[in-house]
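Sample 3 of the quickstart, ligand flavin-adenine dinucleotide:
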Amino acid sequence: MARPSSDYDLAIVGAGFAGSIAAATAAARGLRVALIEAKPQAGARVHTTGLLVKEAAEELDFPLELTRKIHGVRLYAPNLRSVDLFSPGYYFLATDTGALLEWLAQRAQLSGARLFTNSRVEAGRIQDNVVALEPLGITARFVIGADGPRSKIARIFALGFNRHHLCGVEAEFPPLPDAADVLHCFLDSRLAPGYLAWAVPGVGVTQLGLALRERRKPDLDAAVRKIAPRLGLDPAARIGMRGGLIPCGGLVRPFANSHALLVGDAAGLVSPLTGGGIHRAIHFGRRAGLAVADFLLDGGAHPGAVMRRLYPSFFAKRLMRIAMNIEPPRALYNALLNRPMFLSLARSIYFNTRTVAVERTFDQPDSQIRRSLISASF
Ligand SMILES: Cc1cc2nc3c(=O)[nH]c(=O)nc-3n(C[C@H](O)[C@H](O)[C@H](O)COP(=O)(O)OP(=O)(O)OC[C@H]3O[C@@H](n4cnc5c(N)ncnc54)[C@H](O)[C@@H]3O)c2cc1C
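Result:
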């Protein structure tokens, strides 16, 4: 059968984590790829905290200078008592997220993808077996929608879209000279109903934010008032802001049709419990690039059928999201913080149940970490 005539084999809308990685993979396998981004640069106006779980850090070799390792979690009850959780061998990576997204888009270009910036896709259609995207006027044999939580590609091609979100907002402060090697997580159902507030010792900044269930407005000032004194941050020294929507309703359906496939946030591939989506954007972005290359170059199965076998349904995490939305009373968190079952649950969520937790007090060097339970700063 004759190939339909098109400018590109694959158009990818959105040069975020999912889109840039799908583009690099597909282009490296020989597809003519257009990577289309609404913003002036791939890393402009970052909306995410950009913290990578270790599993995400293992998917790609990220430039060392754009990341910072964080080895543990300091979990705070609403009364600000805290407990430290560590897990041998486990870490998170804080990132210079804007620079990392730029690097990913450059990597896609080096593989042969053509990047179009300042190019918001507003409309599209499938005609004569070819996808046309407007106003750019690009045609392609297949399109991947990697355009985030409010996917335009989902709307244009009548695919499923995200109906439930958390709303997250974050302020940036100068780095703390003596930042502890922990991700600070603040449980407080008044400040952050349905989720939590956090502070991250980031790359060249300290990030302080909160997310909460939909239809509530995040009170960032209240979070800063509560958290900044605890960490020694100057509330007046705010240097930047970021924020956005976090899909939390699980996989959208349908996520594909004859000529289109959704990945990343557009597909709802975000943990409904933790709101983490970068690992899945990276992992499934790459798998989507491979699936489209197999389909278009080698007569492989349709990418929608391939991804149906791979995409998670998040069944257990959606149930846990319902429990979080109930907004446990603050007194309950205060009472639970040092209870073994609660800590065991927290460890399994933060460290993905793979490893054991260890105890460490703040002044102990790593070599003296005791392999037992948890350390609490009561
Ligand atoms: C406040 C906040 C904090 C978060 N913190 C973390 C965290 O620490 N760790 C974690 O794992 N996850 C976190 N997440 C979730 C994570 O950011 C997302 O899951 C991840 O960024 C998804 O990547 P993506 O490539 O699918 O989408 P996005 O990163 O949203 O990228 C989509 C891209 O598409 C572009 N685009 C959109 N519409 C169009 C259009 N019509 N035409 C052209 N381009 C378009 C956008 O400009 C954007 O560049 C957070 C989210 C928020 C909002």
